Amino acid sequence: MKKTLFVLVAFLAMAGMVFASGQAQSGQAGTKQVVVKTMAYGDNSNSEGVNWVRIVKAFEKENPNIKIDYELLYDEAYHQKVAARLAAGDVPHLAYMGADARWGAPWKEAKQQFDHRPYIDANFFDLNLIPPMGPNGEIYEIPLGTSNITTVLYMNEELVKSLGFSEPKTYEDLVAMVPKARAAGLDVVSIDGADGWAWGSCLMSAIIARVSGDPNWVSKAVAGKYKFTDQAFVDSLTLLQKMVKDGVISDKSVLVDYGANISNFSNKKALFMIQGQWAAGSIDPAVAEKTKMLAWPKLPGEKAATTGSVAAAIQVGYGITQAGAKDPAVRDAALKFLKYFYSYEETTQRLRDGAIVAPILKNYKVPEDLPTIVKQKVGLAQKAKNTDVIDAFLGGAPNDALNAGMQKIVAGTATPAEVAAEVEKLLRK
């Protein structure tokens, strides 16, 4: 009897160990761990990347049966890796994406766009704030927030006033600041000109709408109604030359990257900074409290129809791919993570960080204690007229040629007419 009892106890102990081992391997008892391959956007030095890592760790702790197997990359490195992975057939299940030429085209070309409409919780998300992204109203990603303003002119109000100036109403007001700014060792307007996309998204998208008077000039040009060799576009590129000649923008700006641009502004080395609305959260908090977010003042040759306009596009976000949707278990795990990622708490954190203009959650109440610069952002979005963002419609080689061409114009190695001709040629090939 004792021998039998000993064997039974030993058997039960061994069974318990096997059960515990299986539980650890699967995440929880009787459940196989689901792996969601993900391409995430950010790095270890910005809020996007830091928050991503934190969110994933918290989610996996609460959901041990789900593993978010992610690759975290930022800026051009991200876009290059997207192209490489899709070309190799290594398609992630979930990825940071958009619906335009820059953020959506690779997924569209790879036939990996997935319509989320049947799976979006209308009690959680405000569907009125999520614009259609496909020809039949498809929604290919869950935007981080409402429209994404790309052409913001950030003004250090305190620094501008210290030189005896005030908020500029015209381009000539900026030119008038040049002598005193130079004498003080300051740039008038700083831009991360080493990043080609910044010239298109954050500056030229505003200029072409203002000069042409058509808020949808870019999309119409891509569709063939206009040409990039038209006088309106050549004149818009010529304005870059004028900005450098007048000293409003330095020809050395082509050596400044995104981080250095924000650092220069935060360290009071420039009166103004050109970037998108997302940069607001990266400015030093002390400087941010003295910063005003503006649409560009009246530009030379601009038309009345687009005065005061800003360029804005559908906000990027995270979306499930066709590869991720193929397996119901992976799809459901990804959907569960998205609900966690877009939770009220995380959306509020994103708003505080300055990453978004306004949330897309149902019945969301904006906190009253938001930083001043974040409140300004919402105000700018409410009052400004929106126009096309260039790389939301112009992609691939033509957009690359335009971005590189604008850098050449600023550096004095290409003319506006030459750049315009190259873009048009590549677009119509």
UniProtKB/TrEMBL annotation:
InterPro entries named in the record: Bact_solute-bd_prot1, SBP
Signal sequence annotation: 1-20
Family matches, as Gene3D superfamilies: Periplasmic binding protein-like II
PANTHER family, sorted: ARABINOSE-BINDING PROTEIN-RELATED, DIACETYLCHITOBIOSE BINDING PROTEIN DASA
Keywords for the protein's UniProt record, in alphabetical order: Signal
UniProt GO cellular component terms: periplasmic space
Protein name: Extracellular solute-binding protein family 1
Highest taxon listed in the record's lineage: Bacteria
